[in-house]
Design goal:
Helix content: over 70%
Radius of gyration: 36 Å
Distance between the termini: 126 Å
Oligomer: single chain
Number of helices: 24
Strand content: under 5%
Largest sheet: none
Length: about 425
């Protein structure tokens, strides 16, 4: 009998994690008769899995074949990837004797065969037999609950599993994720930080930073990520996350610093540059622009930064190159029109603003640009016409007042000309 139990557990361990760490049967184990024990021994000694399956399969036709033989045949089929066949043999074994390990392995076979709901029921049966003490069954059931969006049930089963394996960091990590998805972010953050203190595993700091992000506590998120980046297994995505944290906190220089350390962050560097510009921080904007990898994208942002800083000649050089490469870039077109206006080239500026009118969402900017150009060129009749058009479309009191002044000035000019 002791020999059979050893062979049984040897075969179960060989099929992989689905039969590992068995808590124990709460129903009696099936006893192998002497013939079954002999066949199982021969299967263990077989040169490969296919030969073991054949030995076990041939023996199942015998009158003395019972649950132990069918169970081991199911294990052999599972190892070979014959999941549907494994299911049949496990079920046949359960017809002869119901026991925990067979239910558990049946659940894994059903799952591998794509029979999700049947697998879930089998895991539930196995877990019930074990008195809800088997960690693998509990965590498979927790996973199913999470996939259904029932994070509280998943959390309950994960907590139950931790009773039996309190130092299992995979279980602690799963609990943190379930807490986070159950909208218990503060508890998730606290649990993850405590787990990091014990394990020094980077994944727990990632949970902490995610919780802080969700709470819009960007300073805390940045702090967690700074700690994470000191660990040897931190990577590019962690640098990007650190950049995002500092960006959220309004520390655009730090954000650009981390984005620059991670490849493929051109779009984020552009955002940092523009955010810095809007915050009147031209130095940071120029730093972010200089770190953009793509040549054309770098020229585009550098041109806009130079234009906002009043360096008109430099801005025109970059913006002209950028517009030549992307003629439909409305932002560059508007910036170049403003740069030309700042340089006193009003006719060229007006030409660009006229082009801008054809872009969706740009008509208002274009009309005001044309109005400024018309006034600068002292083309008051054109300016008056533009004032009328702007007032009719946008109901601007400021434009109406300007139009009245222009009309008065135009009338005075006309009188003096007479």
């Amino acid at each position: 009998m002791k020999n059979f139990i050893y062979i049984l557990f040897f075969l179960c361990a060989a099929v992989g994690s689905f039969a590992a760490d068995v808590v124990g049967d709460l129903l009696s184990k099936p006893s192998a008769n002497k013939y079954e024990a002999q066949i199982i021994s021969e299967a263990v000694a077989a040169p490969d899995d296919s030969a073991a399956r054949k030995i076990l399969l041939d023996a199942t036709s015998k009158d003395w074949a019972g649950a132990p033989l069918l169970f081991n045949l199911g294990n052999a089929c599972f190892k070979l990837g014959y999941f549907d066949e494994a299911v049949r043999h496990y079920n046949a074994a359960l017809q002869k004797r119901k026991f925990f390990l067979c239910y558990k392995n049946l659940a894994f076979a059903l799952e591998a065969a794509g029979k999700t709901e049947e697998a879930r029921r089998a895991f539930a049966a196995a877990s019930a037999i074990s008195g809800n003490s088997d960690v693998q069954c509990l965590m498979r059931l927790a996973d199913y609950a999470a996939k259904d969006g029932d994070y509280y049930s998943a959390l309950s089963m994960c907590s139950q599993a931790l009773i039996y394996s309190p130092d299992n960091m995979d279980l602690v990590y799963a609990k943190c994720l379930f807490l986070m998805r159950a909208s218990l972010a503060a508890q998730a953050e606290a649990s993850a930080f405590a787990a990091f203190g014990k394990s020094r595993q980077s994944r727990f700091l990632r949970v902490c930073s995610k919780c802080a992000f969700d709470a819009r506590n960007y300073a805390a998120a940045a702090s967690y990520l700074e700690m994470l980046l000191r660990l040897p297994d931190s990577g590019r995505d962690d640098k990007v996350s650190a950049g995002d944290a500092y960006f959220g906190a309004g520390a655009y220089r730090k954000a650009a610093h981390f984005y620059a350390q991670a490849s493929g962050c051109d779009a984020k560097l552009q955002n940092a540059a523009f955010a810095a510009l809007n915050n009147s921080d031209a130095e940071t904007a120029e730093f972010a622009a200089s770190k953009i990898e793509d040549k054309l994208a770098r020229a585009r942002v550098a041109g806009i930064v130079a234009a906002r800083a009043g360096r008109t000649a430099e801005a025109e050089k970059y913006l002209e190159a950028s517009l030549a490469a992307a003629p439909d870039d409305a932002v560059v077109l508007a910036e170049l029109a403003d740069a030309r206006f700042a340089a006193g080239r009003y006719a060229e500026s007006a030409e660009l603003f006229s082009r801008l009118r054809s872009f969706d969402g740009c008509e208002k900017t274009a009309l005001f640009g044309l109005l400024r150009s018309a006034i600068a060129r002292k083309n008051y009749k054109s300016a008056l016409a533009l004032c009328g058009e702007i007032s009719s479309k946008y109901n601007s009191a400021e434009v109406k007042a300007a139009a009245a002044k222009l009309q008065k000035y135009a009338d005075e000019l006309e009188k003096s000309a007479q």
